[in-house]
Predict the 3D structure of the following.
Amino acid sequence: MEKAHKILEIEDIHTYYGESHVIQGLSLFIHAQEAVSILGRNGVGKTTTLRSLMGLTPPRSGAITIDGQNTTRWPAHRIAKLGVAYVPAERHIFPGLTVEENLKMAARPGNGDNSWNLERVYAQFPVLADRTKQDGATLSGGEQQMLAIGRALISNPKLIILDEPSQGLAPLIVDHVTDIVKNFCVGSGMTLLVVEQNYRMALKVASRHYLMSTKGQIAGTATTQELVENQQIILDHLAV
Ligand SMILES: Nc1ncnc2c1ncn2[C@@H]1O[C@H](COP(=O)(O)OP(=O)(O)OP(=O)(O)O)[C@@H](O)[C@H]1O
Ligand SMILES: [Mg+2]
C-alpha cells in the first residue's frame, strides 16, 4: 500500500511571546485524512502550537510544512488560503453579521459530492437554518460553536483545526458537537487536528493523540485504543 502523505509536519519549532519561550522544540505530523488530537493541561502550549502553525504567532526556529509547502514564514491569510480552517477556542463569530453572512464570508468552492455549501450546512445544522437572519453574536455558546464549525466546513478545507471545541459547553451540547465533528470533519476526506483538555471528547473524535507535557514538549503519542486500554497514560500526562 502506498504510504499516506503527511498533510502537516511540524519539525522542532520554538515559539516565543516576547522573551517568554513557550514552545521548546515541538515536532508532530498528521497524515492526510487522519484525525489527531493534542491533549494537555492548562497552559502547556496547545493554543500557541495552533497559532504557530496558522502563522499568527510564527515560530522563531524550526519548520512547518503543510501539504508539501514550507509555510513556516507565511502570513495567516496565505495559510488559510492553502485550505486550513482554524476554529479558535473563542470561536470569533463576527458581531453585527447574521448567521448567514458569517457563513457566506467563509464560503469557498469545494470539489466533488462531498463539498459544503450553504444548503448543506443548513441541512446538517438545523439550529443555524432556524436563525439565518439572527446576529451571530447573539447565539448561545453551543450555537456559536456550531456556526464556527459550519463556517470552517463551508470553506471546504483540507485541514480543519479545532481549539477546545467543548470548552464552556453543557455536557449535552458537548455530545452534539462531538457528533458533528465525528460525522462531518472525520472520515469525509478532511484531516482533523483537535486540541482538548476533555480527553473523553478527544478519544471519540480522533484516532491518534499527542500528549503535551509542558512548554510544547510531546511526552508521548498513543492511539485511541492504547489510551482506552491504559487510562493510566492519560492520568500520568494530564492529571493535575
Ligand atoms: N499573548 C501571550 N503573551 C505571553 N504569554 C502568553 C500569551 N498567551 C499565552 N501565553 C503563555 O504561554 C503559555 C502557553 O499558553 P497556551 O495558551 O498556548 O496554552 P494552552 O495549552 O492552550 O492552555 P489552555 O488550556 O489554557 O488553553 C502559558 O504559560 C501562557 O500563560
Ligand atoms: Mg488554549
